[in-house]
Structures are given as C-alpha cells and as structure tokens.
Amino acid sequence: MTDAADARSGKDRPAESGDECVFCTIVAGRLSASIVAEDQLTMAFMDQRQFHPGHVLIIPRTHLSDIRNANDGIASAVGCMVARVARAVDRAFPTDGLSVWHSAGAGANQEVPHLHFHVHPRRLDDDVLRVYPAPPSSPDRLTLESWAARLRSAIDG
After folding, report:
1. What pTM did the predictor assign?
2. Cα gap 121→94, rounded to integer Å
C-alpha cells in the first residue's frame, strides 16, 4: 500500500515513515513548529494561522487520518493533552470562552489528513465557528431513541 493510501485508510504509521504529512514532518523534527507541550504519544504546537492569539493544535505522534482510526490509548492521550492545553490557553490569553474541534474527513473540511484537535480562544460574537448554516431540526423523541439504538449497536462493532 502506498503512503497516500495509508493516509486515506488511517493506517497507523510511525512519523518517520517518509510520507509527506506536514504534521509527521513536525514530529520527526524536519519542520519547525512552536511547541507548547509534548509527551511520548502527543504534541501540541501553535497553529500558524491565529484568528485570536493562542490557537493551538494537538496531534498524536503516530500518523492517523482522524479520530475514527484512533485506538483508546491514543484517543485518551490526545484528550488529556487537549484538556491540558485548554487550561493553559484559558490562563495565558484573555478569552470569553474556548472552542475545541476536530474535523474528520473531506465532508467535514479536514485540511490536513492527520488527526488533530484545535484549541481556539474565543471572543463574544467573533463568529469563528458558526456551527449550523441554518437552524437545525429537532427530531421527536422516538426518532432520537431509534438513532441512539443504532449507535449503541455500532459502539463496539
């Protein structure tokens, strides 16, 4: 399988595999980044695009395309780093709140096909992450219960 196919499939690869993933080149030390924090499984660094000062990216050191391909250990490590960074951003930069987000796949406009979360300082009325282009529907309880059942059956499947 090619590196590009590996990236699309989310196959776990060490960052040093020679692919051209920009985040893997940061992990491997071949591209500079302003590191905020790091541990054995994750890295946090400043996003090069700063709508508000303090926008940080958190990634696993292992190449995974998105959260759907993360095992529980990687997901836990990334989640813990996200929480640590969120607390730091909140202390270090004046904000009215924080947004934490991850886009998974082309349909979610994921720009870099390497699992990453954004911790983004927010200001009232900044409109940075307008979630819905129009008011969302409010399905009835029976529909919600049906969807919950589908998800419960898919949780460990």
Report:
1. 0.81
2. 8
